[in-house]
Amino acid sequence: MSVHLPTPHPDELLYSVVCRLITRTGWTPRITANQLFGDGTWCNVDLCGRLDALASNLGPELPMTGDDILSRLTLFPFYAAGAAPKVRAEVAKLLREGTSHHAHARLGVLAQSIPRPTRLRYCPRCRDEDLERLGETYWRRSHQLPGVVACARHPAMLATSDVRAKSMIELGYRDATSVLQDVRDDASPFEPWQVERAHAVARRCSPLLDEPWNHARSPLDLGEARDLARRKGMVGAWGGIAHPRLAAHVLAFYGSDLVEAMNLPAKPSPAGELYWVKRHFVDFHHNVFPVTAVVLATALDALPDLPTPPRPFTRGRGHPPRAPRPGELDLWRAEWARTMEAAAPPKVSTARRQAQGLVLKLRAWDREWYLAFNARHRALRGSSVDYVARDAEVVAKLEEAHRALVADEDGPQRSRRAIVVRANVTPGWITDALPKAVAFLDRHVEDDASYRRRKLRLAAARLLASGRRPTPTSLATESRLGYDVVRGPDTINFARSLCTLLPEDGALGPLRRVRRQPRTS
User: The whole model's pTM is what?
Assistant: First the structure.
């Protein structure tokens, strides 16, 4: 049975379309969920699952696929703007075929400094225009973006309704027309210049819902963000980002009350830094939240460009080296090439120690050439390691470490890969590159059952050497495994076989079972 879903308005949420469907048909939320998704899936505000099933149940007057619904009626394009392409593809497939339970975590939304809105928001001017032009209003996607507090169409702040943006299963669906048509709006507490700057942030975030983000030239690209900060003079003596100065500019540009309204921390640290500003310029995080990038880019665009941009980003201490004179950069390159040629192996490390001043100059003013030259030298020099001999040497060390590990001195230890490698003082990545060493570790690594059998065998040997016959209780005490472990299903049969040994069998002799004497009549 096809469902005749209302035609979505521009920038409308799928949740709002479902609300209008319920208003027109009078269906209960449960019936609506069964008719749309086939299994009772509830339509959340920002992300929704089983979109392929929803697209297959739509009538012919609204030909939409699961990808169309995902990109046109949800907040997925905005959330996925700063995620890796592989993550975007995985989450898109999850929302089309599965549920939305883990979508926010996979996209990095839950790890961001800006929480999602807890209640649905609206623009009073957009609502009045909708009621006059359409006779109804609806919930817009651009009004529910985390961190965006102004309308993208009008220079006006968003108002908050009493409709919760979460827990749809408990609260059901509430149409925007019935909720907002009689609401009286309060005056905005922000200054006109703050409203204009919040409106500028909203204008730059709204296109993310309709078109892919160009990462090559955007604030989401780490290199582009650093270049923008450099052009505006937000760098320190060594070319690094001056986080305290940038944080002070952001607070002065927006005002601390507007920054807090965006759900961004507005209280600097004792060093004068804002955590979310500093985190945007580090390269260890995988996801970039679009609002943070847009807020920083909008504040930086208001500053004039420096007449002479500072030198590239470098690391180091002390005073920065002077700028090169005309033609001096080529002389530095030739000098570094001669230093590398004359240095003893390892050439790069030796040359760095011999020409530290030259290294600082090249890293400050010609960093790209310096790194590329060193990388090319490392690639051309080849490898001088005899891995066959190294493999045999590592295997000998592993055998010695394994014998010391299982020796019965302070009690047997479990032979685990990490313990053997650490005792061998060999990095794990080197051991993984040696086939004989890997095979040795695979043979001698013990699981729980093998470890317990070895401890029981050693305990039985000690009991037999002292002239005592093994019993389950004595084995549990001597091996320190405990009676419950010895009586467990994995070890009880092996323990019983050890209990049939006699003291005259010796501690290391073969397992000889006690033959029962035939019963005499």
Answer: 0.59
